[in-house]
Amino acid sequence: xxxxxxxxxxxxxxxxxxxxxxxxxxxxxxxxxxxxxxxxxxxxxxxxxxxxxxxxxxxxxxxxxxxxxxxxxxxxxxxxxxxxxxxxxxxxxxxxxxxxxxxxxxxxxxxxxxxxxxxxxxxxxxxxxxxxxxxxxxxxxxxxxxxxxxxxxxxxxxxxxxx
Length: 163
Description:
L,D-transpeptidase catalytic domain-like, 8 strands, alpha+beta, single chain, 163 residues, 23% helix, 8-stranded mixed sheet
């Protein structure tokens, strides 16, 4: 019986997600003016989430501490399931263009921009918290939405953040 259970587990781990009917996103699109995050696959919208941003959401992130969410094209380059904000997926900000701009302005570009859930211990308040832009420049979802996004997005997926 243990061998059969082990064989089933191995099979499940190696079955591609498309065989299980789970369609992964090949692009994440965030539209700040709509407070929406769209998961796309081959141009088709798979899922839409309501999101919150930095406390100063208008415009592209220019420097550390400006509480803006960057705009542009980046990659989701790693996942952190032990985040202080439920779970988090890192956005590859700043890119070379962002670093050059910050250097020209004589400021630090900032970093550690993530898509994440609620601060640990406060997930139950997301129905209120998500009505406000409250992050330091990250993109926040409810914990349940973050769990769903976590499963549908792989490391290496591009993200476009639009005004």
